[in-house]
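Q: What would this chain look like folded?
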Amino acid sequence: MKPVPQATSLRRAPVQRRSAERLTRILDACADLLDEVGYDALSTRAVALRAGVPIGSVYRFFGNKRQMADALAQRNLERFTAGVTERLKESGEEGGWRKAMDVVLDEYLAMKRTAPGFSLVDFGNQIPVGARHAEPNHRVADRLTDLLSGYLSREPDDELRRCFLIAVETADTLVHLAFRMAPEGDERIIQEARELLRAYLARVLD
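A: My prediction, written as structure tokens:
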């Protein structure tokens, strides 16, 4: 099982600091507007106005709003990975893989509750709204395999990648169910998700 290549929607990568800051403002504006008006009503012009940049600056990076949403999803994945890494450093090695899996799920829940635009695009698999595509979950699973294999003292082989992919798909489905049931996520469903993931992963990681 080969890792899924990282997606990029940028027409041109920022080189100078000023350009990178402008890209950040554009993506921040895109995220805020997704929460406010939804994907269908989102426009590149509205994003430019909210970000305080010329419309040409948006088109310098993106050809359309779908590419902006894809770039936001990629940024979400980078921030998710960084958040998991930081939480693992803070928690230490006590608790083994069960603690590590709690860290992963807790970071996902935190982003689900607080990250602007995350409820619509998360890691890239919900645009058009409601669509569920497999590739983003493959990217998440690959990222977690590479990140956690050393922590778990395991080789990032096909078995571990398949294991994490199944875990990510399962968690994704149950967390979405939890947030359909309650605005902040139904805690009973979230707890059931934790127990289910632990029972499955124990077969491979114990």
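DSSP finds nine helices and no strands in the chain.
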